Amino acid sequence: MFQQTLRAEPQRLLRARDSRARLKLFSGSGNPQLAREIADVLEVPLADLSIFRYADGEVGVRIEESVRGEDVFVIQPTSPPVNENLIEMLVIIDALRRASADRITAVLPYFGYARQDRKMRPREPISAKLVANLLTAAGCHRILAVDLHAGQLWGFFDIPLDHLPSRMILGDYFANKHLENVVVVSPDVGGVPRAREFAKQLGAPIAIIDKRRDRPNQVKEVVHVIGKVYRRTAIIVDDIIDTAGTLTVGAQALFKRGVTTVYACATHAILSGPAVQRLSNSRITELVVTNTIPLAPEKLIDKVTVLSVAPLLAEAIRRIHQDTSVSELFER
Question: What gap in Å lies between CA 145 and CA 164, rounded to an integer?
């Protein structure tokens, strides 16, 4: 849908906000395949950028073409290796700022450190706010992000932020499967707003898994499943799948309560540690994710389906470049 809308626009609209500024796309090394897909949709080539490492491991960057007065977008998820990708993004932004780019937009398909968004105990950092400050200090003028982990993250940025939910891509995929007797399940209380929007798109009821956690990435027990799930097809909706502990334990709880089939979907598939093994051994029929984070071949098991966010990001980039509404993308 997004790709068709974009290609219908004349190429002249991809020119500048004024007669000087042109759209330029740069890619870090975090997800070059996604950057190439975005460039293909926009029919704009990726700009020339050299990224290298010095002998001591420091990141080096060289902008190989003029960006003076240009409208620049840097595509780089801060996914694992998180610190490498984050520093690379900051160094690229600094280089562009010093090269006199007119406006620099950081395109963050995945925002690392997003889960460190509050103090859980005394003497802990709020790392997500720190990363937001670093992006601003480096010279970033605007952020374009996909499915931030929590709503309060918007307030961490002192520069404009455009937020793209992936529910339209994931929701359309499941709508086209024509599943019957569906219930949309939130894996925790915090994900209820996300599940509610997803359920509205499918015209389905929601249920909630109440869980307790001893420490990050470990679920102690599922306390209760709230909602009617007996003899239904469940779709567990989350934003991030990391070790898949929450997902697989939640699926077990649903089967114990009479669910016939379990699907799952998430925007960001980290799939670290035991995640792939857990998914392989689980009764989950299919896990649908997007390509905000590149998946290694060994993680692309038969149960995993990957959808592209490139058309969505490309359309948002086009609208930002033209200074038109991004929110209209989701008004349906």
Answer: 6
